[in-house]
Amino acid sequence: MIDSYVKRTDEYISDLKAKLSIAFTEKYLIEMKLKDNFNLQRKTIENLEKNITTRDKLLFEKDEQLYAQERQIKKITKQLEDIMNEELSHRGKVNAIQSESKGNTHDKDIGNRDGSKTKVIIKESDFDKEKIEKELTELKTKLELTLSKLQETETELENTKTRLSKAMGDKLTDNNPNIADLSDKNRPTKLAERYAELYDNHWTDAFDVLQAFNQGEETVIEILINILKNVMIFCQSKALEQIKTLKKVLAFANEPVSTGVLTLRTFDGIKPFKIKSVLNQCYNISFESYIPNASLQISEDVSPDFWKVLKDARKALSGISLENLHQMFISNGQGSTNDTIKSALKVGKFTRECIEICWYMAVQDPPVTLGPISDKGSVFNADMYKAYTVSGTHVDFVVWPPLLLHEHGPILAKGVAQGYVRKP
């Protein structure tokens, strides 16, 4: 009896030790995550401070230009007032001369008895009148030129204000997901709605099609997730390829472009060699050149504004390139021996919708990304996942990955996972 009690006690203590070990591990992971988040936030703050400093400097320079132009406008306005006052003064003189001329007509009648003196007075009056009229003509010409110059200055001032506004807008929106273009029908919030509809509608239809091939539920779910991941990889690689090609064409470069630095960030649950296999065998894409979730870093020889123009051009033409992108994916997948790709061709509507949404995600600045996929047995994060058919404290398997505004960013759309309650 005592031995049985001691045995149960030992088992209980062992179980507590195991739970304590797990708790310490989870504590360590949380601390590491908090540390990473702190470093990321600090880096974000530093970048924001740098952007604010650059913006303030730009604003100061533009304010100096605007102040100089305003002073020029005031100067021209003062000249105009002086010219108009001078013109009024001359008009008064002309009126006085005209009145005097009428009086001189009477003098002319008298001058017939004293001819020479009267004729001299008339000639001097005519001479003064012609001189003043000539000066008036010159003043009118000068006034028209000044008015034209004033209009040009005002137009230049307005253009400067417009350019400043656009420059500040570009500075604020470049690689800044917190400022959305409300005129963009494919902005991140709209993509999140389509992403949710993809799961609610097309995912269900694709599930039924694949399950008809006598495949189990979890197997079909895994296939559909892999289709989404592979489409995302394909779209990200093509988005990078497009930017590099644009830069190469504009630079008339015959050599491969090396200014774009690619960094590896793999999806959770897919090993690097599997990604390499998918890219090389199925898509004919070099793993070393195009890797998932890669980001383009700005080289020193090209200004940030240049990359902004390229990214804007890519985004503006994203709808036009969709059909060709779909054809490339289908063409590269035909004849493939990869099970995921063969399944993708069987569920064409689901795959097409995945391509369209993932492409618009890839051309955002910064790109919208798929969130991390929780491991089996990990704590169920209700902020990141909704329950599939069973809720619980831990994750059994992931059905649909969450969507993030950008890498390590806030959640745009929750994923779906199957839960279970771990027994104590």
Helix content: 55-70%
Structural class: mainly alpha
Tell me the number of strands: 6
Mean pLDDT over the full residue set: 75
N→C terminal distance? 24 Å
Q: Measured on Cα atoms, how large is the radius of gyration?
A: 39 Å
Proportion of beta-strand residues: 5-15%
| Helix-strand pattern | HHHHHHHHHEEEEEE
Low-confidence stretches: 104-124, 255-300
Give the count of helical stretches: 9
Quickly count the domains. Answer: 2
Strand order, largest beta sheet: 1-4-5
Principal-axis shape equals elongated
Biggest pleated-sheet summary: 3 strands, antiparallel
Give a structural overview:
It is a single chain. This protein has 424 residues and is mostly helical. It has 2 domains: 1-173; 185-420, no CATH class. The protein is 67% helix and 5% strand. It is built from 9 helices and 6 strands. It has helices at 2-111, 115-173, 188-211, 217-250, 272-282, 304-316, 322-333, 339-346, 348-362, and strands at residues 369-370, 385-387, 394-400, 403-404, 411-413, 415-420. The strands form 2 sheets. It has a 3-stranded antiparallel sheet, covered by helices on one side. Strands 2-6-3 form a 3-stranded mixed sheet.
Give a concise summary:
The chain is mainly alpha-helical and 424 residues long.
